[in-house]
Amino acid sequence: MRAELQRDTRHWLIATACLTVAPHTLWLPSWLSALCAILLGATLWQAARARRALPRMLLLFIALAAAAAIKLHFGHFFGKDPGIALLAALLCLKLLESRSSRDARAVILLAFFLQLGLFLNDQTLAIAALALCGTLAATVTLQSLHLGAQPVRVRLRSGAMLLAQALPLMVVLFIFFPRIPGPLWGLPADAHSGLSGLSDTMAPGSISELILSEAIAFRAAFDGPLPPPEERYWRGPVLSEFDGRSWREARFSTAAQPPYVAAGPAYRYRLTLEPHNRHWLLALDYTDQAPPGSRYASDYKLLSTRPLRERIRIDLQARPQTRPGAQEDAAVLAAARRLPSTGNPRARALAAQFAAPGATPAEILQRTLEHFRDARYVYTLNPPLAAADSVDDFLFDSRAGFCEHFSSAFVFTLRAAGLAARVVTGYQGGELNPVDGVLVVRQSHAHAWAEVWLPGEGWRRVDPTALAAPARISTGLAEALPAGTVLPLLMRAEFSWLRQIRQRWEAASNHWNQWVLGYDRERQHELLQRFGIGDTGWQRLALLMSAGIALLVVALLAWAYARPRRGDALDRAWAALCAKGAGRGHRRQAWEGPLDYGRRLAGACPAQAQEVHAIATEYARLRYRPPADGDAVRALAQRIRRLKLQ
User: Fold this and answer.
1) Residue 266: what pLDDT?
2) Within the chain, which residues score under 70 in pLDDT?
3) Phi and psi of 451, rounded to 5°?
4) Is the dihedral of CA 80, 86, 92, 98 positive or negative?
5) Backbone phi, psi, residue 572, to 5°
6) Looking at the keywords, is Protein transport present (predicted)?
7) Global confidence as pTM
């Protein structure tokens, strides 16, 4: 016959299920999150009202309906997302029908699986902390099945001690377990969903959508001083093809060596790049040596040989003052001058004025710069909707836009005047974290600028946005926008204290990324080499891991046998009574049970005989009829402390 669950244990099970499922709601479909909430609420209501379990046929119907809905939502069962969704539904359903210790163990096992499943979606420090809380709750719940009722403080301390004892084993596994390249989950159906960032196309409004995101795009830790703000341009897609509204990347070739001669001051830094499922490495202009696994594009951006589907760290050296493209290919220049045959007539007429007969390319560029500087264009997060002729609309009607409007109109005007120009997208600037000295570049730092080719000089970077809002480059987005613009919460000056909290958290997260998530095959090899271990093949690592685990087991066994045995709270209370009896000359013999010793001690102390006998009887009841109630144990200990033998 299976033992029924105690009410206290049922509450711990519900708490464990809530802590386990709650973080997954960030990725679960909303309807499934609602279903899990309803099932958990029904379980709590049953526990509070001591209601009978739902009919098994009804539970079976809910399980089949949930499985069919998951299949319909994801289109398949075999993958990370549908697998985790199905486990979450089964956990809540199993909890609703749980009535015995066996059922509780199945719920706890599902909870452990789902806590592991968190890391298939995210491996940040926050997720690790949530998984640790869920694991602690599951461990405490598992203990409650065997130890009975205890104070919450005692249970949490005991569960934390168990997790702490597993820490040495975790360290051995972390150091020696063979590292496998690639993400934790590799099924193509859903392995890399949800990654966002720059696109290889640009249309009005495309970059301003990113500005509202405070997500981190990458971090850069410089060996020395940071480059000045006007040189902090992180190169992404280079857009040369224009169809009248959108800009797209043109075809480019790649090479192992840079297609330019790097010159000027060098800045060495380590780039920690978040996954974005593209090839762009978003390096600072212009890198003078490609790191392993990367190549140079003919339009000067640095590319990874495969899409970035996991966080990477690379060491780079940039020389922002390099002037590339002095001997540019004629086909590239032709593509950088090409425009649609029709559209934006007013912009074409303006360009014709700049390209008056006899004007040199440098003079055309200067006249265009002066126009953008003097025309009082407004830099705004919320430009009006663009008309069909988007460039004309910006230059002559709305006169307000974001960086993509400025760069698009600027490059169009230069091309219409006969110059070779193109749009470059990426990130500009960055936010120095004073806690760890790392430059943090967010999605809100996304930017678009222009490059124009001048004979004898090559490609020159021109940022038309800076002509209307110079503060965008020198101090950041918030200072460049007009007064009264509604900014994201953490960009507002009155929330500086909140930014300080975020900076501390992000500094801790960066350490987590560098030392825990960044512990890849290369760093594992470097660490083991310091200890004289040159062979880091999986066979050697498996041997070292097994030896380390064996040593830990032997050390823990030795410690367990060597440490004094104090017993539990009930044993300590009984030992206190035996000590009082021994103080009166009535030491308990090794062969005496609690009732026998209680009768002998009561006979020797007639004034307290009734109390001694009652204490011995209560101790026997609590000791030999488990599980012992925590309140009863504490009451017995107080009676023994108050007892004065005469």
Assistant:
1) 93
2) 1-4, 50-53, 148-150, 180-197, 205-206, 208-212, 472-495, 563-567, 626-629
3) -130, 130
4) negative
5) -65, -35
6) no
7) 0.69
Q: Return d(Cα 573, Cα 567) in angstroms, integer.
A: 10
Q: Which of 24, 371, 447, 605 is catalytic?
A: 447
Tokens of 534: 């040159």
Q: Which of 18, 236, 247, 40 is nearest to 134 (CA)?
A: 18
188-218, pLDDT tens digit by residue? 444 444 455 688 888 876 676 666 678 889 9
Give the active site residue among 403, 405, 445, 605: 403
Give the whole-angstrom CA distance, residue 528 versus residue 595.
61
- Buried residues in 321-352 as b, exposed as e (16+ CB within 10 A): ebbbbeebeeebeeebbebeeebbeebbebbe
Closest by Cα among 475, 466, 342 to 416? 342
pLDDT averaged over every residue in the chain: 84
553-584: string of b/e by CB count within 10 Å (b at 16+)? eeeeeeeeeeeeeeeebbeebbeebbebbeee
Q: Please, where are the H alpha helices in 355-486? A: 361-374, 390-392, 403-416, 464-468, 471-474, 477-480
Tokens 């390209």 belong to residue:
355
In one-letter notation, the amino acid at residue 528 is: L
Which residue, among 386, 394, 410, 391, has the nearest Cα to 467 in the 3D structure?
410
Taking only the tens place, the pLDDT of each residue in 102-142 is 888 999 999 999 999 898 888 888 888 999 999 999 998 88
Distance CA 573, CA 575 (A): 5
d(CA 267, CA 262): 12
Assess whether 133 carries a catalytic annotation: no
The residue annotated as part of the active site, out of 81, 389, 463, 605, is 463
- Rounded to whole angstroms, the Cα distance separating 314 from 576 reads 64
The CA-atom distances, in angstroms, between 488 and each of 86, 204, 417 are 36, 20, 39
Residues in the chain: 646
CA dist., res. 480 & res. 475, Å (int): 8
Token code pair at residue 129: 């902390």
Pairwise CA distance, residues 607 & 200, whole Å:
93
- Enter the DSSP assignment of 188: T
- Give catalytic status of residue 447 as yes or no: yes
In angstroms, the CA 375 to CA 396 distance is 10
Among this protein's residues, is 463 annotated catalytic? Answer: yes
